[in-house]
Amino acid sequence: MRTIKSEQDIHDMARGAVLLGTGGGGDPYVGGLFVCEQIRKGRHPRLCSLDELADDAFVLSIAGIGSPTVIVEQLISEQTLARLLGRAESFFGCRIDALISAEIGGANSVFPLALSAISGIPVVDADGVGRAVPQLEMTTFSIYGIRATPGILMDDIGNVVTVDAASDRKAEDLCRAITTAMGSLSFSAIYPMTGAQAKQAAVRDTLDLSLQIGRVIRNARDGSSDVFAALLGYLNALPGREAYELFDGKIIDVAHETRGGWHWGVVTMQSPHSPDDIFTVQFRNEFIAARRNGKLVTMVPDLITILDRESAEPLTGEMLSYGQRVKVIGLSADPMLVRPESLEVLGPRAFGMDCDYIPVGRCMV
């Protein structure tokens, strides 16, 4: 068990979570400010490893559901978080022993830390996908038999809805409809599980990974080093993973649309060396597929991240705008996500693409 006492750690963790969030999960800026304010008040988030969990511990996922374009406009309310915790313990009829992120990405990496700071309940250093995803059932929790429901959804003004769906796919449909009615943002308490289930199904050490990624970027930037070389060096040293610089150019067009509770769009980039060298990234909350001159170079579940060319600050989809100079990095997914059973739920065909998954390294050839 460790306690986060440094505001810098929160900022680094948020930065790394944006990179792992592949454009989605919401901007963690406001959530990070909330957690830092709690630290200044002497309230500190606590982290525990999966191995520290008792097998019979009651573990619950706290997450925001909705469009990132709406999430970025919302403040985090201490009252809302406390009410969510109270309603969850009342609904499930037991004390919550630990919190866990449904996904590691943007704002959804910060929500459990915020609740930990005000409640003292530890957050497990793990999550349900090792990146961000647009649909509720696209998690290793769901893939390995942990049901998303029963659970609850609530909004800032006190509306509370309980959901108990026949399948996690149906839970996604129901939660998406409820969230749209709540203004395209809800706070959820879902995926009730035991410590033993979490150990079997979660992607490990992802909060620490986001912290280390954020530190690498900050330290290289502060030391006037080549930030992208430092970042790629760190990512390529991760066991079983590989990272590549996919493109370096300027954004020449961004199409955004908030529809059905999702943020849809395509960002188009152009090389400074050749006007005919075009790179596009398609997204639905998260970046789904990247193409260079029409050829696929990266696809889900591998991670696509867009970073500011000067600062190497990772960008969410809603931050992208015409004229930005950016670099695009492709990172292979956590090995849990490329197993056959995972690709059925997280592979390109699950996103409507007419192709099978090809790892980023082979896809670029």
TrEMBL record:
Alphabetized Pfam families for the sequence: S-Me-THD_C, S-Me-THD_N
Residues of the S-Me-THD-like C-terminal domain: 167-360
UniProt organism field: Sandaracinobacter neustonicus
Transmembrane segments: none
Name of the protein described by the UniProt record: DUF917 domain-containing protein
Positions of the S-Me-THD N-terminal domain: 8-164
Lineage: Bacteria, Pseudomonadati, Pseudomonadota, Alphaproteobacteria, Sphingomonadales
Gene3D superfamilies: CV3147-like (2.40.390.10), CV3147-like domain (3.40.1610.10)
